[in-house]
Amino acid sequence: MLPLPTALEQVREALLDDRGLVRAVASGHRRGAEQPWRRVEIRPVELKAGRRLQVVTYDERQAFTANFAPGEDAAARVGELLEHPFGNWHVETAAETLQLRVTKKGEGQLSRARSSAPDAPRAQGNDRAPRHLLAPDDPLFSVLGASGAKRRQVDAFLQSVAATGGELPADRVRVVDLGCGNAYLTFAAHRFLSGDREVELLGVDTKAQSREHGERVAASLGISGSVRFVESTIADAPIEAADLVLALHACDTATDEALARAVRARATVLLVAPCCHHDLQSQLVGQEAPEPYAVLTRHPILRERFVDVLTDSLRAALLRLLGYRVEVVEFVAAEQTPRNVLLRAVRTGAPPAAGAVEEYLCLVDDWGVVPALQRMLHDELVPVLGRP
Predict the structure, then answer these.
(1) C or N terminus of the chain, fewer CB within 10 Å?
(2) pLDDT tens sequence across 344-357
(3) How far apart are CA 117 and CA 155, in angstroms?
């Protein structure tokens, strides 16, 4: 633990390392503090005018981008941002990753993890994971018997957890994993979020072996008191409240069930990786595509891929209509799994943007579909859509 000014000075040095900085994210807010931005992203970019420090600030509805020349301009802007009461700073450099979290006592909890790829490109705007957000020698890996591939998946997944961690409560975080399976990413999230705050974890799966496996791992790690696994469907899961909801590779409409449960629980953060997309595929069988889009569905393999994209686009649109800020990213490398799309959503409570309802209704009407998530959240969506 460090005095906050000391920790922020280390963050400032990393942000102003013109040739070392890869990407940085500031999010959340300190207890009792308010600020105009929900999130700030910083990265170096190459423009025609030369190298610049790009700063993207997000409010409840939109993003604002500005570029600053290295030197005094960049230093002044970074100084202004560090004065804002952000609760979390996540800074990736070519050499290491810094994670700063401001505790409820106003101190700086700063962790560093060395990058295993110091020669990686330093100005890429992507969602590839930094290495070792969870230390390679963490006891979790020994308990799970995780391979190198599993560890890389953990590192990649934890980047998305880190990107939204500032939105979570500073004292107690309730994590729910719907369709948890062997739960190795669930346990990784628990380990990563634990520090000076309490983390409660509920894992839900229909298989008894998943429950039994999760209980054994929790006992081995000595965290049985804060971790619970239940044998249940998503619809019947005993969820009273949730801050972070995970659903990783729940098949077809199980993904929609997880999203619906998360919305009804008013979860703050949703990290959902869809798998299989049969619902809209079946609705479009034998149906003509609207003009002039028949070319998109003429070939079976392209039709399947297009409907996958349509399904997840409609899911993201519905979440936005219900007050969530949504990003769609790749959370692991495609060579690890082709199902590597992640819906990353944060509840803001903001009303739909102008034209968003009409845009959604035009899309579903043109294609003649009713997404499963719309059916499951019928009561919540009627007042928003203005029709059943």
Answers:
(1) C
(2) 999 988 899 889 99
(3) 13
